[in-house]
Amino acid sequence: MKRYSAFAIAREALRHHAGWERAWKSPEPRRRYDVVIVGAGGHGLATAYYLGKNFGITDVAVIEKGWLGGGNTGRNTTIIRSNYLQDASAAIFEKARSLYETLSQDLNYNVMFSPRGVLMLAQTEHEVRGWKRTAHANALQGVETEYVDAQRVKELCPIMNIDGPRYPVLGALWQPRGGTARHDAVAWGYARACSAMGMDIIQKCEVTGIRAEGGKVRGVDTSKGPIDCGKLGLVVAGHSGVLADMAGFRLPIESVALQALVSEPIKPCMDVVVMANTVHGYMSQSDKGEMVIGGGADGYNNYTQRGSFHHIEETVRALIETFPIISRLKMLRQWGGIVDMTGDRSPIMSKTPLENCFVNCGWGTGGFKAIPGSGWGFAELMAKGQSPLCDAFSLDRFREGRFVDESVAAGVAH
Ligand SMILES: Cc1cc2nc3c(=O)[nH]c(=O)nc-3n(C[C@H](O)[C@H](O)[C@H](O)COP(=O)(O)OP(=O)(O)OC[C@H]3O[C@@H](n4cnc5c(N)ncnc54)[C@H](O)[C@@H]3O)c2cc1C
């Protein structure tokens, strides 16, 4: 595959852009692969990429029922941060964040990583204590964060109203190297790199069954016919329960719709990401100038990819309190994705009761930021049967009561 470069742009400009290759191939599935990954979202594609890059395993198919990146990976609000409370979470999210720093160069694809800084507001005394505690934990974990007071918040984000009306801003947890990246580009960059390694990305191909023999996985049935495999990775976010059912085991997962919306584009007015968890709303400004706004998750299980109407009103109300200047903005689009929630709000990256079948899910409302780290760890788990990044996130923890409790530190925030 030809490399993208400034020279290539100049060359193609002279050739009327006739020489660009397709970014990835769209092959028909073969009868067998060493590894099949179900789900061409960021996590599935990153897993395939690091299987090839770190372990030389390239006889891999990534199977996707829709189009690649069309699940939650292309539906999120793109926030990247690693300021989690528990050591195991900080380790994987910081691994991911640090990989994001050089991901564009690694993939030879501009993922537009923008480490503009993330502010998580403290609007109650309880949150002040919580964020200070997280800042201390992060210092021990080697994650760069700082608790800042309300005045510093105002300096970092002048359009913010720090005085109320319901909850004044008391301070914030500030992660200066957190930020955003272009979500589609992350999926496309990994897909292109996987395709260049000879892997097959098979879109519009739904997995409809999982075949097993003697307690071991044998392959999958798909809408394009059966495919055999040595190892199987299930990386399907909100549909994890459906796939686990096909494989004959149950997951402690609930699937709910989470929604987001964007405004019409306006001039640059905000160069940080702000999350206001007490009033519940979060916002950043895209490179096009749109205000990207994250809403709440539905309070009941569903697969609608739409989200309940009242969340829009609640989210917009919360943000107008925090940023009065947006009160007259028109909203352009609203959408939803199906997120996979565990009880402790931490992911599952694990072996399963079916031998050679692995599952990566439970990233809930906050897995975009984890994509490179998750792919790195899950590839190691699939290749070697063990990974230090994944150990704490095995399915056993639910039986043994070893929860990685991020339900206060990260469960609602993205
Ligand atoms: C509105 C919203 C805002 C969010 N904001 C943030 C944020 O700001 N920051 C953050 O870190 N995270 C955020 N998230 C969460 C994040 O998007 C997800 O955790 C992450 O994208 C999950 O990626 P994935 O690869 O596991 O899943 P997905 O991208 O959903 O990929 C799974 C794929 O599996 C495919 N699939 C399902 N069933 C089958 C089948 N039977 N056969 C074949 N393929 C199948 C689906 O079509 C899908 O493409 C947000 C999510 C939403 C919905």
Structure commentary:
With 414 residues, the protein is of the alpha/beta class. It has 2 domains: 30-114 and 179-253 and 343-414, 3-Layer(bba) Sandwich (FAD/NAD(P)-binding domain); 118-176 and 254-341, 2-Layer Sandwich (D-Amino Acid Oxidase, Chain A, domain 2). The protein contains 11 helices and 18 strands. Strands 1, 2, 8, 9, 10, 11, 17 and 18 form an 8-stranded mixed beta sheet that branches. An 8-stranded mixed beta sheet has the order 5-6-4-13-14-15-12-16. Helix 3 (87-101) packs across helix 10 (371-384). The longest helix is centred in the N-terminal third of the chain and has 17 residues, at 125-141. The protein is globular and about 65 Å long. The two termini are 35 Å apart. It binds flavin-adenine dinucleotide (FAD). The site of flavin-adenine dinucleotide has 40 residues, from helix 2, strand 12 and strand 16. Keywords: Cytoplasm, FAD, Flavoprotein, FMN, Nucleotide-binding, Oxidoreductase.
Distinctive features:
FMN, globular, 2 domains, binds flavin-adenine dinucleotide, nucleotide-binding, EC 1.5.3.24, 29% helix, 414 residues, 11 helices, single chain, D-Amino Acid Oxidase, Chain A, domain 2, Sarcosine oxidase subunit beta, 8-stranded mixed β-sheet
What is the level 1 CATH name of the largest domain?
Answer: Alpha Beta
Tally of individual domains: 2
CATH topology term of the largest domain = FAD/NAD(P)-binding domain
CA radius of gyration: 21 Å
Q: Largest sheet, if any?
A: 8 strands, mixed
| Portion in helices | 25-40%
Q: Are any ligands bound, and if so which?
A: flavin-adenine dinucleotide
Secondary-structure arrangement, i.e. CATH architecture of the largest domain: 3-Layer(bba) Sandwich
Q: Mean of residue pLDDT?
A: 95
Tally of DSSP helical segments: 11
Order of helices and strands: HEHEEHHEHEHEEHEEEEHEEEEHEEEHH
Principal-axes geometry comes out as: globular
- Strands, total number: 18
| Residue runs with pLDDT of under 50 for 5 or more positions | none
Structural class label: alpha/beta
C-alpha end-to-end distance: 35 Å
* CATH homologous superfamily designation of the largest domain: FAD/NAD(P)-binding domain
The proportion of residues in beta strands is 25-35%
